[in-house]
Amino acid sequence: MRVVLVTMALRVPTDPSRWITVPPQGYAGIHWIVANQMDGLLRLGHEVVLLGAPGTEPPSPEVTVVDAGEIDDMHAWLNGPEAAGVDVVHDFSCGQIDPDRLPAGMAYLSSHHLTGRPKYPRNCIYVSYAQRAQAGNDNAPVVRISVNDARYRFRADKDDYLLYLGRISEFKGTYEAAAFAHAAGCRLVVAGPSWEEDYLKRIESDFGDTIDLVGEVGGERRLELISRATAVMVLSQSTMGPWGVVWCEPGSTVVSEAAACGTPVIATPNGCLAEIVPAVGVLVAEGSQFTPEEAAAAVAGLPEPDAVRAAALQRWDHVLVAKQFETLYHEVLAGRTWS
Ligand code: UDP
C-alpha cells in the first residue's frame, strides 16, 4: 500500500525557519511515534508518504517526504495530482487535517495523541482505554504507541540516577518526580524544555540539591540518558492540562522508549499509565508526599532490564503495532467507519 502518514506539523521553537522532522531533533513525542510507525510499515513492505515534516531525511527510497508543513499546503497536496496513487491517509496531526477537505472516497484514519475529545472523531484510533473513555468513544479501536528498538539502546548496567524526560510542566509531574528522587536519596536528571518559569523555579527552590537540569536533549545525549538511568519517572498528575480538560496521560511515548532500553518506569496510575506500566515498572501514588521507605521500596521493586525490554517488545514492537494498523487500513478500505 501507499500510506500517507501525517505528523503534527510544528516549527522548531528555537529556529522557526525549520520544521520538526521525523524523527525529531528534540522534544516531540508524536514525531517519534510517526518514525516508529514508518519503520513498521516499511518492514511490512509498504510505501510511505510523509506529510507535515519538511526537511526530514527519507530513510529509504520507499519514503517520500512532501515539502508541505502549513495546514493549507497539506490539504492542497492531498487534493493534488501526486496524491492520486494514495491508498490510505493515517493522520497523527491531532486536528490539523480536516477529513471533510479530503477528496471523496480517500481512505482516512487518525490516531489521537491528546487528552479530551478529538477535533475530528471520524475513524479515530486511541492509544489507551483511559484516553478513549475520556473521549467517550467506546466503539473505536485502541492501538498502543510502538517502539523500534533499533532506534534505541539496550543497557543492562544502570547508573545511579533517575531520569525525567519531557516538558517541565505541572501535569507531567516534574515536581513530584523531584520529590520522589529526594525521598529515595537519588539524583534526578531533568531533561526537557521549560515554558513555565514559575513552576521550574518552585522545583529548583524545593529540590535544587536533588536535580540536575540539563535542558532539552536529542540524539546521542538523549539515548545515553535513557539507557543508563536506574528508572524513568512518569509521575503524571490528574490536574488541569493544557487543553482545558483534566490531564489523563494519553499514551506516554517515554514509557515504551525507556522500556526498549531496558530502563524500568516509575509512574502514577494516571490515564494510560495504569494500563502499560505494570509490565515494565512500578506504580506510585499521585502527589509529592513520599516517605523514604516508600520511595526505596518502589526502587527496590523495579523489574530487571532484560525483563523490561522483553515485555516492551512483546507488546509494542513496531512491526507488531504496524500490523494492527494495517488490519485497520484494510477494514477502512473495505468500508468500515466508526466515530
Ligand atoms: N524528548 C526529547 N528530548 C527532551 C525531552 C523529551 O527527545 O529533552 C522526547 C521523549 O523522548 C519523548 C517525547 O519527547 O519521545 C515526549 O513524549 P511523551 O509522550 O512522553 O510526552 P508528551 O508528548 O505528552 O509531552
From TrEMBL:
Class of the enzyme per the UniProt entry, highest EC level: transferase
Every Glycosyl transferase family domain range: 156-287
Gene3D superfamilies: Glycogen Phosphorylase B
Pfam families: Glycos_transf_1
Single GO term (MF): glycosyltransferase activity
Keywords: Glycosyltransferase, Transferase
Keyword Transferase: yes
Listed InterPro entries: Glyco_trans_1
UniProt keyword Glycosyltransferase, yes or no: yes
EC number(s) stated in the UniProt entry for this protein: 2.4.-.-
Protein name (database record): Glycosyltransferase
Taxonomic source organism: Dactylosporangium roseum
